[in-house]
Design a protein that fits this description.
Number of domains: 1
CATH superfamily: Winged helix-like DNA-binding domain superfamily/Winged helix DNA-binding domain
Helix content: 40-55%
Radius of gyration: 23 Å
Largest sheet: 3 strands, antiparallel
CATH class: Mainly Alpha
CATH architecture: Orthogonal Bundle
Strand order of the largest sheet: 1-3-2
């Protein structure tokens, strides 16, 4: 097709971004839709980079990223499924694939014969560290390409209090720090 654009830059701007106040959607929903579009653009660009650098699927990559953010140890499979919004059966398959290539380990949770914990291997940590520059560059490049000032303004509808700065009503007041006087010899 000669008329279809070959590059995302050739596509027309998102109508909701051009007419920020003209649509039927409230600002929160408009912002959410733009966030989903931005996420989709990032995922689309990441797929090939993830495959090239880590040789895993995008969904397997998400599992690795979630596990990489754990300070130590791993996560229960049910928690991983919950955080990623994936069915447990699908996650079981993805984790089995990752285990097969030596990127994760699975073990029973102590005291719960049905519980299974999954954790990154050293091999996975090394691969993620080596790929982190290319992955970060891909994410920032994709976001810079799809999110302009009008998109940022629309997305601020998702978190209006955060966009306006801190709201004293939403944060509990801190007690003042007690002031201690050093003890003197006469005390």
């Amino acid at each position: 097709m000669a008329d279809s654009p070959e590059h995302p830059a050739d596509l027309p701007a998102c109508p909701s971004a051009q007419d920020a106040g003209a649509g039927l959607l409230p600002p929160e929903l408009r912002g959410w839709m733009l966030l989903l579009a931005a996420t989709g653009a990032v995922e689309q660009r990441l797929r090939s980079v993830v495959k090239e650098h880590l040789d895993v699927s995008h969904d397997e990559f998400l599992v690795l990223c979630l596990l990489a953010e754990q300070p130590q140890g791993g996560l229960r499979m049910t928690r991983v499924a919950e955080l990623l919004g994936r069915p447990k059966t699908r996650l079981t398959y993805q984790v089995a694939c990752l285990q097969h290539v030596g990127l994760v380990t699975r073990r029973s949770v102590c005291g719960d014969k049905r519980g299974v914990e999954v954790a990154l291997t050293d091999k996975a940590r090394t691969k993620l560290q080596e790929a982190s520059g290319a992955l970060a560059e891909t994410v920032t490049g994709a976001l810079a390409h799809v999110i302009g000032p009008e998109h940022r303004a629309a997305m601020s509808g998702l978190i209006p209090k955060a966009a306006a700065g801190s709201d004293p009503e939403s944060t509990p007041e801190r007690e003042p720090e007690p002031q201690y006087e050093p003890a003197t010899a006469s005390d």
